[in-house]
Amino acid sequence: MSPVDPDLPLVTASRYGDASAFEELIKRYDRKLYRIAQGITHSNEDAEEVVQTAFLKAFQDLNRFQGNAKFSIWLIRIVMNESFMKMRKQRANRAQPFPTENGVAADENGQNRFDLTDWATNPESLYRANELRQILENCLRKLQPRLRVVFLLRDVEGHSINETSGILNLTATCVKTRLSRARLQLRQELTRYFKKATS
């Protein structure tokens, strides 16, 4: 027997017009959904827009939520669909939406897309942390979207194989295969980079 979804009381209250209940759902999942959207779109601004749109759609379609899967999984599916739709639109409008000439992701103003909080004890360690994040971002971007999504859900967000397969409507075997390929490609990209850096 599957465990009871802890979000169901809030979902039910939201259906009956309790705005504070839906606000609580937003608080629970806002950051998680943002990380997933940012991991797909590679843009802070796009990720924020995707999450806002996803919550609006979820609120408008609450009566369509059947409870067959957890509410959080339903939300993640909406965010992923919105993220991929945004990427498709951008691809249609722009020839190369992601890398700049030096391979570092930048927005329309040429600014780095990562907002790195100044937690470092000195400028050198801050530079190294920022450089590492850029390397990881560039390596992730080289993955096919279907591999990247599996990696984000499993290794970044910590979903189990079964949860990931449920979110993506894939078999557990398919998730494991894609995850292995994603990890292997990332390892190859990172190894290639660090070999280049040390030579």
What are the salient characteristics of this protein?
mainly alpha; 2 domains; Rna Polymerase Sigma Factor, Chain: A; Arc Repressor Mutant, subunit A; 0% strand
Structure description:
The chain has 199 residues and is an all-alpha fold. It folds into 2 domains: 1-95, RNA polymerase sigma factor, region 2, helix turn helix motif (Rna Polymerase Sigma Factor, Chain: A, Orthogonal Bundle), CATH 1.10.1740; 117-199, Winged helix-like DNA-binding domain superfamily/Winged helix DNA-binding domain (Arc Repressor Mutant, subunit A, Orthogonal Bundle), CATH 1.10.10. The protein has helices spanning 8-15, 19-41, 44-60, 71-93, 123-141, 145-156, 161-168, 172-198. α2 (19-41) runs antiparallel to α3 (44-60). The longest helix has 27 residues, at 172-198. It is globular. The termini are far apart. The model is unreliable at 96-121 (pLDDT under 50).
What's the short story on this structure?
This protein is mainly α and 199 residues long. Helix content is 69%, strand content 0%.
Number of helices: 8
Helix content: 55-70%
Structural class: mainly alpha
At CATH's second level, what is the architecture of the largest domain?
Orthogonal Bundle
Principal-axis shape equals: globular
User: Biggest β-sheet, characterized?
Assistant: none
Global Rg = 19 Å
Number of structural domains: 2
CATH class of the largest domain: Mainly Alpha
Q: How many E-type strands?
A: 0
- Average pLDDT number: 81
